[in-house]
Amino acid sequence: MILDxxxxxxxxxxxxxxxxxINKILANIPTNLDAxxxxxxxNSPDGTCQKVKDSFHDNGSxxxxxxxxxxxxxxxxxxxxxxxxxxxxxxxxxxxxxxTELIPKLIHVSKMYIMVSGSRYCAGGDMEDKGHYYFxxxxxxxxxxxxxxxxxxxxxxxFIMNRxxxxxxxxxxxxxxxxxxxxxxxHYVQRVGYNIVEIPTIYRxxxxxxxxxxxxxxxxxxxxxxxxxxxxxxxTDPKNNKNNx
Length: 245
Hints:
- The chain is α/β, with parallel strands linked by helices.
- The chain has helices at 18-28, 48-55, 73-83, 103-109, 130-147, 163-166, 181-191, 215-236, and strands at residues 3-11, 35-41, 62-66, 86-91, 115-119, 126-127, 159-162, 196-200, 202-203.
- 38% of the residues lie in helices and 18% in strands.
- The chain has a seven-stranded mixed beta sheet, with helices on both faces.
């Protein structure tokens, strides 16, 4: 059955947040849409997946995928995309930093653009965690310089896209690692000529639980990933290859 919308929620140890989040998502999906919510859980030891099964056992629109191999944020999103049934795919974090009230606007704007990205750095965007805000802002400048992306927020992860269009991208070259998948997604969206627009969003503080990221380790991971990807596209894309005649 083809649905209008699939919401993909990659999760790890979000038992304190996940039921509240899913209820908020259900409340903000327009009632005229046939939608599904897919929790893709990396075998969370806190029982995130089971909590969703128990809480929404009578709601067929809430589905779960438990993953025990090839775990990780980007791999989870990729797995969710593979099983999604919606014409449009919406991806958001499960720590409640992404604003569920923005969902109707994302859906509406996606009627005119292939990809709509919630942005902290376009006019009107912000982040309650100011330290993280400026750390990510500086790193976005570096990404834009190296990859020549035309968007402000290359590390967001809050987006909606047509399923048929995202499936035309080289997903294996995009969805690996952690949040670094997002600058690769932006690159390929622009490379194939898809239109993309950013709409402002304010990232909230984590609702419950501890963050699973560390700024120093993330900086190291993203820098290694960015340089490898820059090298990869320089020597594989004819448009970027100086030796191409």
